Amino acid sequence: MPSKSRNKGNSYERKIAQEFRDLGYTDCKTSRYESKMLDDMKVDLTNTKPYNVQLKAVEKLGILHNVLAEMPDDDNINVVFHKVSRKGEVVAMYKEDFYELIKQLNNGTVK
Questions:
Q1: Quick one: pLDDT at residue 5?
Q2: How many CB atoms lie within 10 A of CB 101?
Q3: What is the DSSP letter of 5?
Q4: In what order do the strands lie in the sheet with 88-93?
Q5: Which of 2, 12, 40, 102 could form a cystine bridge with 57, CB 3.0-4.6 A?
Q6: CATH number reported for the structural domain that contains residue 86 in this entry
Q7: Which H, E and C letters describe 73-88, residue by residue?
Q8: How many domains does the structure of the chain reveal?
Q9: Four-residue CA torsion sign, 34, 93, 61, 18
Protein backbone atom coordinates (compact mmCIF):
# COMPACT_ATOMS: atom_id res chain seq x y z
CA MET A 1 0.00 0.00 0.00
CA PRO A 2 1.52 3.33 -1.06
CA SER A 3 2.35 5.81 1.66
CA LYS A 4 0.44 9.05 2.14
CA SER A 5 3.49 11.09 1.11
CA ARG A 6 3.97 8.99 -2.03
CA ASN A 7 0.33 9.52 -2.98
CA LYS A 8 0.77 13.24 -2.35
CA GLY A 9 3.80 13.32 -4.65
CA ASN A 10 2.10 11.31 -7.39
CA SER A 11 -0.97 13.54 -7.22
CA TYR A 12 1.22 16.65 -7.50
CA GLU A 13 2.95 15.17 -10.57
CA ARG A 14 -0.39 14.57 -12.27
CA LYS A 15 -1.58 18.10 -11.40
CA ILE A 16 1.50 19.83 -12.82
CA ALA A 17 1.49 17.56 -15.91
CA GLN A 18 -2.09 18.71 -16.58
CA GLU A 19 -1.05 22.34 -16.11
CA PHE A 20 1.76 21.85 -18.66
CA ARG A 21 -0.75 20.32 -21.10
CA ASP A 22 -3.00 23.35 -20.52
CA LEU A 23 0.00 25.57 -21.37
CA GLY A 24 0.45 23.87 -24.74
CA TYR A 25 2.70 20.91 -23.90
CA THR A 26 -0.02 18.56 -25.13
CA ASP A 27 2.15 15.41 -24.96
CA CYS A 28 3.34 16.03 -21.39
CA LYS A 29 3.12 12.96 -19.16
CA THR A 30 4.62 11.85 -15.87
CA SER A 31 7.89 9.98 -16.28
CA ARG A 32 6.54 7.26 -13.94
CA TYR A 33 4.07 6.51 -16.76
CA GLU A 34 6.16 7.33 -19.82
CA SER A 35 9.88 6.77 -19.14
CA LYS A 36 11.59 4.90 -16.32
CA MET A 37 14.92 6.17 -17.66
CA LEU A 38 13.89 9.82 -17.14
CA ASP A 39 12.33 8.97 -13.79
CA ASP A 40 15.64 7.42 -12.71
CA MET A 41 17.37 10.64 -13.85
CA LYS A 42 15.17 12.68 -11.44
CA VAL A 43 13.00 14.14 -14.21
CA ASP A 44 9.29 13.87 -13.37
CA LEU A 45 7.64 15.10 -16.58
CA THR A 46 8.24 14.11 -20.21
CA ASN A 47 7.85 16.14 -23.40
CA THR A 48 8.52 19.52 -21.74
CA LYS A 49 11.50 20.58 -23.86
CA PRO A 50 13.41 22.84 -23.24
CA TYR A 51 12.83 22.05 -19.54
CA ASN A 52 13.65 19.11 -17.29
CA VAL A 53 11.03 19.23 -14.54
CA GLN A 54 11.46 17.79 -11.03
CA LEU A 55 8.51 18.04 -8.66
CA LYS A 56 8.59 18.00 -4.85
CA ALA A 57 5.48 18.05 -2.66
CA VAL A 58 7.16 17.90 0.74
CA GLU A 59 6.94 20.15 3.76
CA LYS A 60 10.69 20.35 4.21
CA LEU A 61 12.99 20.24 1.24
CA GLY A 62 16.71 19.97 1.74
CA ILE A 63 19.01 22.14 -0.25
CA LEU A 64 17.66 22.77 -3.74
CA HIS A 65 21.20 22.72 -5.09
CA ASN A 66 21.35 18.98 -4.38
CA VAL A 67 18.09 18.34 -6.23
CA LEU A 68 19.22 20.40 -9.23
CA ALA A 69 22.64 18.70 -9.23
CA GLU A 70 21.01 15.27 -9.58
CA MET A 71 19.14 16.28 -12.73
CA PRO A 72 20.50 15.75 -16.28
CA ASP A 73 23.29 17.93 -17.64
CA ASP A 74 21.90 18.47 -21.14
CA ASP A 75 20.53 21.28 -23.32
CA ASN A 76 17.31 21.55 -21.30
CA ILE A 77 16.80 23.95 -18.39
CA ASN A 78 16.45 22.11 -15.09
CA VAL A 79 13.63 23.40 -12.89
CA VAL A 80 12.36 22.17 -9.54
CA PHE A 81 8.76 22.78 -8.47
CA HIS A 82 8.30 22.77 -4.70
CA LYS A 83 4.90 22.72 -3.03
CA VAL A 84 4.33 23.25 0.69
CA SER A 85 0.85 22.80 2.14
CA ARG A 86 -0.88 26.12 2.88
CA LYS A 87 2.20 28.07 1.72
CA GLY A 88 1.98 27.67 -2.05
CA GLU A 89 4.39 26.66 -4.74
CA VAL A 90 7.73 27.95 -5.97
CA VAL A 91 9.94 27.09 -8.92
CA ALA A 92 13.72 27.03 -8.62
CA MET A 93 16.42 26.94 -11.27
CA TYR A 94 20.05 27.94 -11.65
CA LYS A 95 20.52 31.69 -11.90
CA GLU A 96 22.32 31.35 -15.25
CA ASP A 97 19.31 29.55 -16.71
CA PHE A 98 16.96 32.22 -15.38
CA TYR A 99 19.08 34.95 -16.95
CA GLU A 100 19.11 33.04 -20.24
CA LEU A 101 15.29 32.95 -20.17
CA ILE A 102 15.20 36.71 -19.54
CA LYS A 103 17.54 37.30 -22.48
CA GLN A 104 15.39 35.10 -24.73
CA LEU A 105 12.20 36.86 -23.62
CA ASN A 106 13.75 40.27 -24.24
CA ASN A 107 14.95 39.19 -27.69
CA GLY A 108 11.70 37.42 -28.56
CA THR A 109 13.59 34.14 -29.05
CA VAL A 110 12.13 31.97 -26.28
CA LYS A 111 12.38 28.33 -27.41
A1: 76
A2: 17
A3: H
A4: 51-56, 77-84, 88-93
A5: 12
A6: 3.40.1350
A7: CCCCEEEEEEEECCCE
A8: 1
A9: negative
How many whole angstroms separate alpha carbon 101 and alpha carbon 67?
20
Mention every residue, 6+ apart, whose C-beta is less than 8 A from residue 61: 67, 82
Domain span at 51:
4-107
Rounded to two decimals, the pTM is: 0.75
Peptide bond into 50 cis (omega under 30): yes
Of 62, 63, 61, 67, which Cα lies nearest the Cα of 79? 67
The confidence score (pLDDT) of residue 3 equals: 76
- In order of 30, 49, 95, 102, the CA distances from 18 in angstroms are 10, 16, 26, 25
